[in-house]
Amino acid sequence: MRAEKRGTERAVLSVGLLESAVQADAFVRAIDLFVDRLGDLTKLGFSQPAERQKEKGGAPAYSHQVLLKCYLYGYYYGVRSSRRLARQCRINIEMMWLLEGLQPEYHTIADFRKNYPEGLKKVFTAFNDFLNQQGLFGKETIGVDGVKIRAQNSRKNNYNEDKVSRHQEYNEKKTKEYLKEIEELDQQDAAQEDSQQKNETRKAQIQKALDALKKSKDKYDNLATQLTEAQKTAQTQISTTDPDSRALPEHMKTVSVGYNIQTGVDDKYCLIAHFEVTNIKDTNALGQFACDTATALGTTLEQAMTLLADAGYHCGEELAFCAQNNLITYVAPVQGHTTREEGFRKEDFKYDAPTNTYTCPAAQTLSTNGTWYDRKNRNGQIINSFLRYIAAKEICQACSMATQCLGNCDPKRCKKGRSIERSEYEEYVEANRLRVEQNRDIYRRRQAIVEHPFGTIKRGWGYTYTLLKRIPKVTGEFSLIYTAYNMRRSVSIRSFTRLMTALKSWNLNLEWVEKAQFFLFSLLDALCSLLLPKQYSIGFFRTGFCLAKTWR
């Protein structure tokens, strides 16, 4: 009979060191060293665990270091459920070594992540301080993109005005139908006594349906009231399970209820420099976030940085804001919705800045009366302002190119000549378009830079949804995710041995951590926008806080 290798008898006493069970180059050792080098976590916003009174009994509280190590290890290896983490503390040798045999329950683990979102954000920034001291941030080019993450809120529990109106109309229609049917049954009872029992049964069914419709009516009337209040703050939808989540468009015209995590990635090693949890689309998110990312990297206004973003971020106001803050944008241009399929387009007209006029292909001049017009969206909010440049009607009617220029309009019946609109941000939009067209190779770097983290986090680790609700708590969760990602990248960039050596000599720069936090700035921005006149706005430039005239 062939000899086979046999293990140790389970009933036999064996002695072994936990230290020897963990390999010398296991990454769990880097996590342990990093948290130990953070020192006192109360400096990062974690409150001191309360001492238990002796007369009340009970075990002492777990230290924040223990729970932070547990979470960093879990997120690094794709385990983020508090129950699964609690189980890992009992069966995983590396986790036993990391926590020195401690076995916190799932509720204790879950409460730590839920209660300290700001502290976890500072832990992310603290590791970035280590990366910065190691020179792993290039600080020359950053890529910005948003990743859609599903929230703990189904599409069924997300409502907009159209959805609420449809349900209200349905409830009203069905109520009228049931009431009419009851009236018909009453008439039948008076004419035919033998069918009275059958009609009474049907009436009972209808009454039950009417009671359900009454509850539905009260529900949607309440939702309509909430929507009316939300619209006062420019919100067009509400969610009932996670109030901060919103229905956001994804690829292939699909929509899911979740969050849009704005992410700024440094070009040198594809490390995440900054992130922000939002519930809006990308259109108006570029300017301030890009400045925050540049500030998080420790740069100042004097240092120009290259900014790469896709077409979802194309917005004249945001491009102007970036230019004001010395950020050189390469944002994919977007064609206007009114682009002509035939005839002369806006690009065929040449703008002359000194005279503030346009020249058409027939060498005629289009001038403006100097009046600024507001362009609004369907909610009545002003998108931007523009000047209108118009050619004289007589010139267009006599022009040989009139048919080609005016499109389907009969030149002889035209009430005015050809007009061109120029946005207040036109020069920034045009400058960005020319940069992209002339430097295609630079823009192509965008996808390689900013999609790298998303591929690892969503495809590799499976983090396509959030476990927590509300923006602050989701921010804490993604602080752990992005810290784990940067840790994994740092191992790939540096060898494990060099990483451990660097961590041993690293001292946390609390000033760096504090400067990279924007909670106070966001609060001041919201406050000042309410107090200042409309012609002013608060801008947080990379050199600090200052008051600036709006572009309008």
Strand content: 15-25%
Main beta sheet strand tally, sense and closure: 6 strands, mixed
Class from helix and strand fractions: alpha+beta
What percent of the residues sit in helical stretches (DSSP H or I)?
40-55%
Q: What is the count of DSSP helices, taking H or I runs of 4+ residues?
A: 19
Total strand segments: 16
Mean pLDDT figure? 85
Task: Specify the overall morphology.
Answer: flat
Question: Which stretches of 5+ consecutive residues score pLDDT under 50?
Answer: 519-541, 543-552
Quaternary structure state of the chains depicted: single chain
* Distance linking N and C termini: 90 Å
| Radius of gyration over C-alpha positions, nearest whole angstrom | 31 Å
Features:
552 residues, alpha+beta, 6-stranded mixed beta sheet, 6-stranded antiparallel beta sheet, 16% strand
How does this structure look, described?
The chain has 552 residues and is of the alpha+beta class. The chain has 19 helices and 16 strands. Strands 1, 4, 5, 6, 7 and 8 form a six-stranded mixed beta sheet that branches. Strands 9, 10, 11, 12, 13 and 14 form a six-stranded antiparallel beta sheet that branches. The longest helix has 36 residues. The N and C termini lie far apart (90 Å). The C terminus is likely disordered.
Give the SSE layout:
Elements (H helix, E strand, L loop, with lengths): L17 H4 L6 H11 L25 H13 L5 H10 L1 H6 L7 H10 L1 H17 L7 E10 L7 E3 H31 L4 H36 L5 E3 L6 E4 L5 E12 L5 E7 L7 H11 L8 E5 L6 H9 L2 E5 L18 E3 L4 E3 L5 E4 L4 E4 L5 E9 L2 H6 L3 H5 L12 E5 L2 H13 L1 H21 L10 H23 L2 H9 L5 H6 L3 H13 L4 E6 L2 E6 L3
Parallel strand pairs: 1-7, 7-8
Antiparallel strand pairs: 1-5, 2-3, 4-5, 5-6, 9-10, 10-11, 11-13, 12-13, 13-14, 15-16
